[in-house]
Amino acid sequence: MATHKLLPLLLVTLLACGSPEAIEIGVIAPLTGPAASYGEPSALALQVGADIINEQGGVLGRQIKLIMQDGECNPAKAVTATKHLIEIEGVSVLLGGSCSSESIAIAPVANENKVLQVATLTSADSYSDAGPYSFRVFPTSTYYVGKQAQLALQQGVTSIVIIYEQKAYPQSVFAAFKKGFEANGGTVIQEHAFPSEETDFRSYLLKAKESGAQAILFSAQGTSSAVNFLKHYHELDLQDSFKLIGNSVVAAKKVFDESQGLNVGVTAVDAYADRSTLQAQELLTRYAAKYGQEPQTNFGYVAASYDRVFLVARAMEACESVTDTDCMAAYLSAVQGYRGVYGTLSFDERGDVTSSIAIHHLDEQGNHVWKPIH
After folding, report:
1. Mind listing the pLDDT tens digit for each residue in 34-84?
2. How many angstroms from the chain centroid is the CA of residue 357?
């Protein structure tokens, strides 16, 4: 009888001495809206990485718990999500955003609160000045779009019209391409900025047709804008009038599917990860097992996002703390030659990373054809 009476007390004691409290890490990504086509897979890849870390014993003996918030690639909503994660959830580390508009908007909040921010899918050059707690695992627009401008010139394009959406990422593509193109002797004949709600691109294209330019660069934030543009481009039968260059959104497989292949042959320079490595195969296999299919976006995006959780875990282990963000920021600043799924990564003094890029296009079957250029 005495033994039975001790059982409730023993149960309470065991619960009190149970597993250490999980390390909560905030995640902000566009899980809905036009940017979800790449934002959601990048967020899901983080969970795969967290699962692997937890299976290996976690960080400092504690499991990782990701708290995900939908930023919708919308600055105001991303800021609201950030404040919730910091003020209500009490996170010290934020993996976000997953587009330039999110990342730039939340950086002041993260830095003011000394929260470590590690963004991805964020190429806008202005993020380089976000603050000492802000890092990114993704190339800057100046770096990879500048390469795109050089390649266009090498292919004989000396005059171009640029049509771009009025959001941080497409605007950064426009600015970086123009700078690189003109610096090397090219001429931007026309520039057209369009609002995100635009659905009819015929007026822009008719103006471009009158310009005498050899090429058009189209830069959009979401799939729907790219699909509408391509439909009007083909409707006006401009295929033989211009070389069409896109940003990463225009050359995406999702655009191929929704436009019935109208983006075949459109070239873009983008983040690149080698799918054949052992690390990449583990990520792809586990992602498919967890979610029922492989990531339906550029694998480079998924790889860059996935590597973030491992970098943060290393920083916590090195600092022997999950809250000392000064130490963690110093650790990341010193990272040189980290071998991740996204390739070999090194951070500079502004929190920007040196990473892999490639020129690519889709073939008639919708398969990506990649040619690494770094």
Report:
1. 899 999 999 999 999 999 999 999 999 999 999 999 999 999 999 999 999
2. 13
Cis before residue 18, ω within 30 degrees of 0?
no
Q: Give the closest residue to 351 by CA, choosing from 300, 315, 320, 302.
A: 315
Q: What is the DSSP annotation of 114-162?
A: T-EEEEES---GGGGGS-TTEEEES--HHHHHHHHHHHHHHTT--EEEE
Q: Which domains does the chain have, with CATH numbers?
A: 23-140+275-356 (3.40.50.2300), 142-273+359-372 (3.40.50.2300)
- Which two structure tokens, joined as six digits, stand for 336? 């040189």
What is the CA 235 to chain-centroid distance, rounded?
A: 32
What is residue 260's three-state secondary structure?
coil
The answer for 254, left when phi > 0, alpha when psi is -120 to 50, beta otherwise, is alpha
In 3-state terms the chain splits into helix, strand, coil percentages (rounded to 5) of 45, 20, 35
The pTM assigned to this predicted structure is: 0.85
Burial 191-217 (b: 16+ CB within 10 A, else e): ebebebebeebeebbeebeeeebbbbb
Sheet of 357-362, strands arranged across: 268-271, 357-362, 368-372
Q: Say if residues 93 and 113 touch (Cβ distance below 8 Å).
A: no
* Number of C-beta neighbours around residue 312 at 10 A: 27
